[in-house]
Amino acid sequence: xxxxxxxxxxxxxxxxNGGNVxxxxxxxxxxxxxxxxxxxxxxxxxxxxxxxxxxxxxxxxIGTVYRNLNILVSEGKLKNVRxxxxxxxxxxxxxxxxxxxxxxxxxxxxxDIPFDETLERxxxxxxxxxxxxxxxxxxxxxxxxxxLGAAAEEQEYxxxxxxxxxxxxxxxxxxx
Length: 176
Ligand SMILES: [Zn+2]
Ligand SMILES: [Zn+2]
Hints:
Elements: H1 2-16, H2 21-38, H3 46-54, H4 62-74, E1 79-82, E2 88-91, E3 98-102, E4 108-111, H5 117-127, E5 137-140, H6 143-175
Parallel strand pairs: 3-5
Antiparallel strand pairs: 1-2, 3-4
Helix pairs in contact: 2-4, 3-4
The chain binds zinc ion (ZN) (2 copies).
One zinc ion is lined by residues 102, 104-105, 107, 141-142, 144-145.
């Protein structure tokens, strides 16, 4: 039923588009890419987008994905951000914002703190340079990794205490 509806919609769209199947697929694909990006806060790479898309469009090539991502960037619908891994990451949040990068799992997260335009004015007045933009990246442990660390520390503490406890018992039994 769903398949039938899809075919029917494509057929109707084809008639409206003068039967240009390739053009229809391209905009479909681009819309799908944008949708994926708008529903993740993870700043994915083209490879990630490609993996997701292949579930629905098995024949889609990584080059096609890359080209469409770049078109979306040139249209101002996505931003292309580079971090320390020198790989393109794509961001559907096109407003000026700062990022937090987890040193353990590599997650790139948007920070909900105000973008400080006064910094640019400060640099400009101090140097006489024309400042167009600035970036601030924060590094540390995300909530998940921080909790993992705390859990590991607790486990280590428990093991140490258990072995001390066992030794204590051993000594106590020798004394009697
Ligand atoms: Zn993390
Ligand atoms: Zn972002």
